Amino acid sequence: MHIVIPDDYQNVIRTLDCFATLRDHRVSLYHDAVADVAQLAERFADADALVLTRERTLVGEELLARLPRLKLISQTGKVAAHLDLAACTRHGVAVMEGRGSPIAPAELTWALILNARRQLLPAIQGLYAGQWQVNLGQRLYGQTLGIWGYGKIGQRLARYAQAFEMPVLVWGSETSRAAAEGDGHRAATSRQAFFAEADVLSLHLRLADATRHLVTAEDLARMKPSALLVNTSRAELITPGALLDGLNLGRPGYAALDVFEQEPLTDSGHPLLQHPRVLCTPHLGYVEREGYELYFGDAFANILAFFSDQPCTLANPDVQRKTD
């Protein structure tokens, strides 16, 4: 069996413990980011299975039509908009999903909040440049943490906030607001109040048609000039251009970002990377060793189960499986 794994940016998948489960199979790994359909079709031409790292590779009708041999896509985590599930079904390509974990994304979010509030990056850069104490940060104690989306990550953040003695303010669905209140937190009285009251506002929503560009320029304009917006979910949750415009207008005052509309972001001149009040990381939310062992361990186990005809749960159960 030939298994192809694209987008191994850090060249680390072979170092994972779970990789040993594929020792009896041919595995091809690619360490760059490719979007060209023709190039992807060439790389995947004789693959029996693909392992997709989250949403890094777009797989749609055009690409699938050029992969008659492909039988299975084993997705790390859950299927999202990068994968055309209906097209997979039409082309006889089964899709299997794995699990996710809130631990690494929540920890990364909190690291961004701490670093952005204490302004650690410019302080560290100053020290390495021979300067001592170049700025003045802020403590988290007493600041209101706004969480939009009270799921597994949001709930974990709320517990971190309690340890730092930060009051928590939640917005989201009625279910999310009720759950937050049940945990002793406060639900915002309105969307407008949520943006106006939060000192640190963190987005934790899934990207879907209903949430795409959900955060508008009007929302950002309600934030305090001292407020910090944190986005470790998806850049597309925010209306294009609205965040940069808002920062330049002074509301919010700061941003900490792990996600971008174009990834990987390799343009060092990008205005968000150049902005003095923005802290950026290269989509590291789930990029952590134990998380990778979970994601890829599931993906590899799914491949082995599928090709050994074990009972499998497919994301597209109506697919007609290909045979050699």
UniProtKB/TrEMBL annotation:
A matching Pfam family: 2-Hacid_dh_C
Gene3D superfamilies (UniProt xref): NAD(P)-binding Rossmann-like Domain
Taxonomy, superkingdom: Bacteria
InterPro entries xrefs: D-2-hydroxyacid_DH (IPR050857), D-isomer_2_OHA_DH_cat_dom (IPR006139), D-isomer_DH_NAD-bd (IPR006140), NAD(P)-bd_dom_sf (IPR036291)
CDD domains: PGDH_like_1
Coiled coil: none
Domain D-isomer specific 2-hydroxyacid dehydrogenase NAD-binding: 111-285
SUPFAM superfamilies: Formate/glycerate dehydrogenase catalytic domain-like (SSF52283), NAD(P)-binding Rossmann-fold domains (SSF51735)
Alphabetized UniProt keyword annotations: NAD, Oxidoreductase
Domain called D-isomer specific 2-hydroxyacid dehydrogenase catalytic: residue spans: 23-312
Protein family according to the UniProt entry: Belongs to the D-isomer specific 2-hydroxyacid dehydrogenase family.
Protein name (Swiss-Prot/TrEMBL): 3-phosphoglycerate dehydrogenase
Species of origin: Phytopseudomonas dryadis
